[in-house]
Design goal:
The complex is a heterodimer of chains A (389) and B (135). By secondary structure, chain A is of the alpha/beta class. Chain A has 14 helices and 12 strands. With 135 residues, chain B is mainly β. Chain B is globular and about 45 Å long. Chain B starts with 6 loop residues before the first helix and ends with a strand. The chains are: A alpha/beta (389), B mainly beta (135).
Chain lengths: 389, 135
């Protein structure tokens, strides 16, 4: 496979937007193209992520309209990817695979989502459509419910009293909101304390409001190119070192919700391809859709042993200037926000900017190798990308 | 390759109080709800099998912010059935406010209840229920 790199990256501010899915995507996409010193006509394909456009705007088949909005040539195909919350990471992986294979030299990938338009009851219903319809969604499970069940299982399996575990989970939220306070693109840019987390309304026992990421609107995009061409266009392209993706079925097949096997398989592929291990990673953007999710991810990615990541945030090991590895300097899904179809591209955007030393107040000193981790559905899809400067 | 037991057969079973899955004739794995392929060994040589409908509760949550059309609070749980498979369903005949960590490891009996379809899923579906044996 040819070496592949990322050129320009961009994201809109995440939050509540009055703009359409297409407007948000075009703003991010045109910025990413301009930062690559290229023009829309240079894009040979669009790998487009969106999950719920049909419910948000009555819009299916959004990819060709996004293509038109960007002004791409008719000969450049636009394809929609949908992998629930992992959508844009999966789109980017496939963009890199096809550039690596020599099918294209320069393409654009990313995603957009306008989730707040639906309101909480419909958003909760449509998000739950990413669980198995006949056997899971029909039981009334919700996404907070999925991670709530994982929390109870974690507490029981590792014999950590629920009250203690929740205190440590609150510290994950505090850390990620602290990081978000330094990110002008974040949905929430306000620091919070653990008491705020532990005083929030109950969403799905034992997860409270501040254990959960928000519904957000936003878009993000990036230009992917063959490495030689990338080096000609830009002084600091960021290279794909390794990628992985795993799939799994409904939760009743997965059984142990503390071990997300699709992640373990995906991360192994990515580390192997990159020729690095968990100890080599300087900065991580991982899937903290709920506080417990960050703990599960740190273990599944091999950064911590199973059953030991629960107090990483409490011990200050994962915060900016922390002792082990900096996790979610952008604020994560928790504070930066989670427009599901765009999330993966925004995680990549953060890691690329970190590796370029462009992250300002939240810059991870000397970051050379970064890891992206995105989870889709009820642990059904995991996609990992390792990037290096 | 046809399903030995389809979703419709499985649903019909639930309505009659039966828990019908399939058993792999190659490796003896029980698969419930039924599927076309044995997840243990990959064989498609499966035979219908009735489960006895008992198991052990492994995890749970109380849903308080519900999807459109659902009325919280209610309990969603997962149980390990005595034959090996796990199932997701609703823990019923108990007050959701009493749901706590003591539930994990409790013996449960399976049943089912009908859930009305909505705008996005026109079919009514029977969903697994769990009842604590002590009740």
């Amino acid at each position: 496979m040819r070496e592949v790199a990322i050129l320009g990256v961009a994201m809109t501010k995440f939050g509540v937007s009055e703009k359409t899915n297409l407007e948000m995507f075009a703003e991010a996409g045109l910025e990413a193209i301009a930062r690559s010193n290229l023009e829309p006509k240079d894009m040979e394909a669009l790998f487009f992520g969106n999950c719920l456009g049909d419910f948000e705007e009555g819009q299916l088949h959004m990819a060709p309209f996004a293509h038109a909005e960007l002004g791409l040539p008719v000969s450049s195909p636009a394809t929609r990817f949908e992998s629930a919350c992992a959508t844009a990471t999966v789109a980017t992986r496939h963009a890199a695979l096809l550039v690596g294979a020599g099918v294209y030299d320069v393409v654009i990938a990313g995603g957009t989502e306008r989730a707040t338009k639906m309101g909480t009851p419909l958003a909760t219903r449509t998000f739950a459509m990413a669980c198995q319809a006949q056997h899971e969604s029909a039981a009334g499970i919700t996404f907070p419910g999925v991670f709530a069940m994982a929390t109870h299982m974690y507490s029981h399996k590792y014999d950590i009293p629920l009250k203690n575990l929740k205190r440590h989970m609150a510290d994950v939220a505090v850390k990620n909101h602290f990081h978000g306070s330094m990110n002008p693109k974040a949905h929430f840019q306000k620091k919070i304390d653990a008491e705020t987390v532990l005083g929030g309304m109950m969403v799905a026992d034992p997860l409270q409001l501040f254990d959960c990421c928000p519904f957000s609107d936003g878009a993000s995009a990036l230009v992917v190119a063959e490495a030689g061409k990338a080096k000609d266009l830009m002084k600091n392209p960021i290279f794909f070192a390794g990628m992985g993706q795993g799939s799994n079925g409904p939760l009743y097949i997965q059984k142990d919700l503390t071990r997300i096997r699709a992640r373990e398989a995906s991360a192994l592929q990515a580390y192997k391809q990159a020729g690095v291990g968990p100890q080599d990673i300087d900065v991580i953007e991982l899937h903290d859709c709920f506080t417990i999710a960050e703990i599960l991810a740190l273990e599944g990615l091999g950064i911590y042993d199973f059953g030991t990541a629960y107090d990483a945030a409490t011990k200050g090991e994962t915060a900016l200037h922390g002792k082990k590895v900096i996790v979610n300097p952008s604020g994560g899904l928790k504070a930066k926000g989670h427009p599901i179809g765009a999330t993966g591209a925004a995680q990549i955007t953060e890691v690329v900017e970190q590796l370029r030393g462009e992250s300002g107040l939240r810059q991870v000193d000397g970051a050379r190798i970064g890891l992206v981790d995105t989870l889709g559905g009820d642990f059904g899809t995991i996609c990992n990308i390792i990037l290096r400067s | 390759m046809e399903y030995k037991i389809t979703f419709k057969d499985y649903q019909q079973g639930l309505e009659e109080g039966k828990f019908i899955g399939v058993k792999c004739t190659s490796c003896n794995e029980t698969i419930f709800p039924p599927a076309a392929v044995c997840r243990e060994c990959g064989s498609t040589d499966l035979a219908p099998a009735e489960l006895k409908g008992e198991g052990t509760l492994r995890t749970f949550t109380v849903i308080r912010v519900a999807p459109e059309g659902r009325r919280p609070p209610y309990v969603v749980a997962m149980a390990e059935l005595d034959e090996g498979p796990w199932a997701m369903g609703n823990l019923i005949e108990m007050n959701p406010e009493d749901a706590d960590m003591n539930l994990i490891g409790k013996r449960v009996r399976l049943g089912s209840h009908p859930v009305k379809g909505d705008t996005y899923s026109s079919d009514d579906i029977r969903v697994i229920t769990f009842t604590l044996n002590a009740y």
